[in-house]
TrEMBL record, chain A:
Pfam families associated with the record: DUF742
Species in which this protein is naturally found: Streptomyces griseoaurantiacus M045
Protein name in the entry: Multi-component regulatory system-4
Region (Disordered), start-end ranges: 1-26
Lineage: Bacteria, Bacillati, Actinomycetota, Actinomycetes, Kitasatosporales
InterPro entries registered for this protein in UniProt: DUF742
Length: 146, 211
């Protein structure tokens, strides 16, 4: 969105079933995945907020990795969400899902899928609520004071 | 209150690449537990503005797959035809503490279509439907979706120029919403206002866990 390069809002991408696709950037990455798409054979696709971190082995293997895999591992030197990786590298979410699974299987990426029951636990929600309440509004005034 | 789930460290179920033998992850810290809220609404209603008002990063854009179910007014067969399409999805995040991070995902609703954001909504703790009171139609799909999925959600009227054209009661009536769905007025440009709208959703989600 920052520079207008990403195919934001582009309709017409239809996946790997041979029908016409819209934005060119969506095409080549699926060649990288050898046409595989995420979430078909292995159950549901991992959530967009899934955290990914490069492993030491992944960093060590950087030079041997192909472009997209290289970029993913390099970008995950610090924990990143799946969505952040897709956005920053301008890759389709499902391309990152497939490549991340490969990298995980090879021990180069640690993939942390959040557990829904824990995310929705009352203690977690309370911590988020307390953290949000501490955010001042635009004028630097805390909640309940205006 | 329900018993706390078994305390998997960090709240993750899958850490399949726990390469202790290889020295572990490069970064010393574990990734934070990501908590996800979905922000929905029609085009131009203020989703990206709202995300940008409170996110600690400039909102990023990627594409999410949605499944449109073309069972709209012109479908006489009552046989839903599903098509997958992609929509731009803006998102941002707020670090609560080093172990907890709130993600906000904003995505447009589709006028006249039923649709499913299963790709996006899976695991979300709640939803915020942003409404422009001049264009209520744009939010029906999102309201229907959250109701159908049983996801806690609130409706937030974006007060463009500080005003809304309809009262909260009028909006509630127009949307035919259950009484327990909170309806608030907010200003997507104001961080504190966005924060309070998000708190409405989170407090609703919390009350469900304690229900």
């Amino acid at each position: 969105m920052a520079d207008g390069h990403a195919p934001a809002g582009a309709h017409g991408f239809t996946g790997p079933d041979g029908t016409p696709v819209g934005p060119a950037p969506a095409v080549r990455p699926f060649l990288v995945t050898a046409g595989r798409v995420a979430g078909t054979a292995s159950g549901r696709p991992i959530p967009v907020e899934t955290q990914m971190v490069a492993t030491t082995a992944g960093i060590d293997a950087l030079e041997r990795l192909s472009f997209e895999q290289h970029d993913i591992v390099a970008a995950c030197r610090r924990p990143q969400s799946l969505a952040e990786i897709a956005a920053r590298l301008r890759l389709h979410l499902n391309v990152v899902r497939v490549l991340a699974e490969d990298l995980r299987a090879d021990g180069q990426l640690s993939v942390h899928v959040p557990r829904t029951d824990i995310v929705r636990d009352a203690s977690v929600l309370r911590r988020v609520i307390d953290g949000l309440r501490a955010i001042p509004d635009s004028r630097g005034v805390l909640r309940d004071s205006d | 209150m329900a018993s706390v789930p078994s305390p998997t460290p960090g709240g993750y179920s899958v850490t399949p690449t726990e390469p202790a033998a290889q020295g572990g992850a490069v970064t010393a810290e574990r990734p934070p537990l990501p908590v996800k809220l979905v922000i929905a609404g029609g085009f131009g209603v203020g989703k990206t503005t709202a995300v940008g008002s409170i996110s600690e990063i400039e909102p990023l854009t990627t594409e999410a797959a949605i499944t449109e179910v073309a069972a709209g007014v012109d479908d006489l067969s009552h046989t839903p035809t599903k098509t997958t399409t992609t929509v731009a999805m803006d998102f941002g995040c707020i670090t609560i503490d080093p172990t907890l991070k709130l993600y906000l995902f904003g995505t447009p609703g589709q006028d006249r279509f039923g649709f499913m954001w299963d790709d996006l909504v899976e695991g979300a703790v709640g939803g915020l439907v942003i409404v422009d009171s001049r264009r209520l139609d744009d939010c029906y799909a999102a309201v229907d979706y959250f109701e159908h999925r049983g996801i806690p959600f609130a409706v937030a009227l974006n007060a463009f120029d500080g005003t809304v054209e309809h009262s909260l009661d009028e909006v509630r009536w127009a949307l035919d919403m259950a009484d327990q769905v909170p309806v608030v007025v907010f200003d997507a440009r104001e961080r504190g206002s966005v924060r309070d709208a998000l708190l409405t959703v989170l407090e609703l989600a919390l009350s469900r866990t304690e229900g």
